[in-house]
Amino acid sequence: MANAQSPEIRSDIPHSARIWNYWMGGKDNYEVDRTVGEACLEIDPDISTMAVQSRQFLIRAVRYLANEAGIRQFLDIGTGLPTMQNTHEVAQGAAPESRIVYVDNDPLVLAHARALLINTSDEGVTSYINSDFHDPEQIVSDARNVLNFTQPITVMFMGVLGHANSHEDMLRIVRTVMEAVPSGSHLVLWDGSVDSQAYVTLCEEYAKTGGAPYYPRTQDQIRAAFDGFELIDPGFVPIVEWRPESSQLGERPQIAAYGGVARKP
Q: What InterPro entries does this protein's entry cite (predicted)?
């Protein structure tokens, strides 16, 4: 379900979702995104590794929630462009009856959602909402049309909360959505941090391109989003260290990206 009027797709202004798609090896981007993406790689060569590792974290977290925590509803806010192993594919692969709602406000994302975000199972539901995460009340209202808010829901903010205008605004967004979901729901969240000066510089330079600014936070600021919730082992950690699979053990890339999975009491 999408709003009747979507903003036009701008191919002359870079967009973080399309640049992220480029870093992950996707083809859903424009020349301006590739140009900015390459410039960003010169500033911070680790950013493409962060992009790939963030998807691996999503896969592991969703698989855990579907297989071990028994979650059957997922609200993926700021989903970005469909690439590989999207939330609905992982969740419905583990539990075919899973219901997934994606949220984004980029017209290119929504155009691809219509074509690609289809059920991987007959039992499940895959839908999307055209909305800005700065309006979490609207997201909750729209999501109620698809998800059952009397049953646990996993809320996901995967590398998007840097678009919040301030740390206080970031916490407001997370808490507004989490207050609406019942006990037993989960929060999955990660973001890049100021630990990497190259990443900070990258974000500063990106803002000069006309794209929506992205504000890196400290580890403590990112972790504060989990206050009041029960962090699942191993807790708040670098995303490469959150329950790596056996094939991912050994020497892991060092990237300044942190997150976790937490349960609402």
A: SAM-dependent_MTases_sf, SAM_dep_MeTrfase_SAV2177_type
Q: Are 193 and 217 in contact (CB under 8 A)?
A: yes
Question: Topology of domain 16-263, per CATH?
Answer: Rossmann fold (3.40.50)
pTM: 0.91
Least Cα distance to 159 among 189, 129, 138, 195 occurs for 189
CA–CA separation, 217 vs 102, rounded Å? 24
Phi, psi of 47 (to 5 degrees): -65, -35
Nearest by Cα to 255 from 198, 202, 187 = 198
Q: Tens place of pLDDT for every residue, the chain, 265 residues?
A: 334 344 567 778 888 888 888 888 888 888 999 999 999 999 999 999 999 999 999 999 999 999 999 999 999 999 887 777 899 999 999 999 999 999 998 877 887 777 766 777 889 999 999 999 999 999 999 999 999 999 999 999 999 999 999 999 999 999 999 999 999 999 999 999 999 999 999 999 988 888 889 999 999 999 999 999 999 999 999 999 999 987 656 667 889 999 999 999 9
